[in-house]
Amino acid sequence: MFELVAGTKRLSLASPVVMGILNVTPDSFSDGGQFSSFELACKHADEMVLQGAKIIDIGGESTRPGAADVALEEELARVIPLVRYVAQYHDVWISVDTSKPEVMRQAIDAGAHLINDVRALMEPGALEVAASLNVPVCLMHMQGQPRSMQSAPEYQDVVSDVSGFLKGRVQACLEAGIKRENLLIDPGFGFGKTLEHNYELLAKLEAFHSFELPILIGLSRKSMIGNLLERPTTERLAGSLAGALIAAQKGSHIIRVHDVAETIDILKVLEAVQANNK
User: Fold this and answer.
1) Composition of the chain by helix, strand, coil, percent to 5
2) 3-state DSSP call for residue 217?
3) Is 10 one of the annotated active-site residues of the chain?
4) CA-CA distance, 275 to 204, in Å (whole number)?
5) Which residues contact 41 (CB under 8 A, 6 or more apart)?
6) Is 0.90 topped by the overall pTM?
7) Cα–Cα dist 164/222, whole Å
8) Which site in 83, 172, 260, 273 is 20 to 30 Å from 101, CA atoms measured?
9) Is 222 annotated as catalytic?
10) Residue (of 257, 267, 268, 271) closest to 55 by Cα position
């Protein structure tokens, strides 16, 4: 049974927990104004905590395919005030979705508990900073960079190749002084993968239990749902819930989603069934 620990804060992963997505990017909220976007983000955080999210994942850099890079000062301005707000008003785990060492450092100082890095601590200085902060870190697989990652991604064997990459990053973390109990893994659905790659990863998710580390899954509203169902982002709830349920059935520990209440509902149904199947 896994447990996340950051200082005196603990989170049991004995059953799947929901991580609510809180992106603070110009296209995250319909209102383009800086102040009111912050207010909307705060309200959204309040809602997700009320709905039962155990972790709020705060990000200030869009990593969707084709996304442009964000300057350090801009990312800090988006992320840090929101981390402070959630830390002040909610007794919930706070994750910072970033690849920048300075954002990691300032976010943890502001009250965050977990680093969620799509680049698996490969940016210069990230390994060292993460080791010094001594908090849980999620390592995600991505082929290429957001700007170009969906340009004809190729694998010899997607499960084996993703596993091989993650093994290398886990080893690099251990060598940098990061404790094994502080590591989580994410196969990176939608990050440099075709539709077929994504569904093969989901079908064979059990393969990642060999790491004996918590598994974080994020497929909510992604193109692997939209392209399969031919649905726009606003009509991907059913597909996202199906993916979340399958991921939970296959032993994922953290489900990263936009739709917190609905995901918690399906997990309660799954838990009720599993409780009667022992």
Assistant:
1) 45, 15, 35
2) strand
3) no
4) 24
5) 22, 24, 28, 29, 82
6) yes
7) 24
8) 260
9) yes
10) 257
CB atoms closer than 10 angstroms to residue 51:
16
Distance separating alpha carbons of residues 251 and 253, to the nearest angstrom: 6
3-state secondary structure at position 265: helix
**Residuewise pLDDT in 10s, the chain (278 residues):** 899 999 999 999 999 999 999 988 776 654 444 555 888 899 999 999 999 999 999 999 876 666 678 899 999 999 999 999 999 999 999 999 999 999 999 999 999 999 999 999 999 999 999 999 999 999 999 986 655 555 667 888 999 999 999 999 999 999 999 999 999 999 999 998 999 999 999 999 999 999 999 999 999 999 999 999 999 989 999 999 999 999 999 999 999 999 999 999 999 999 999 999 87
Side chain identity at residue 96, one-letter code = V
Residues ≥6 apart with Cβ < 8 Å to 256: 19, 21, 57, 216, 217, 218, 220
The active-site residue, picked from 169, 193, 221, 256, is 256
**Chain centroid, CA 68 distance in Å:** 19
Q: In this structure, what token pair is assigned to residue 225?
A: 């749902």
Looking up tokens 């606003």 gives 234
Backbone dihedral angles phi then psi of residue 72, each to the nearest 5 degrees: -55, -50
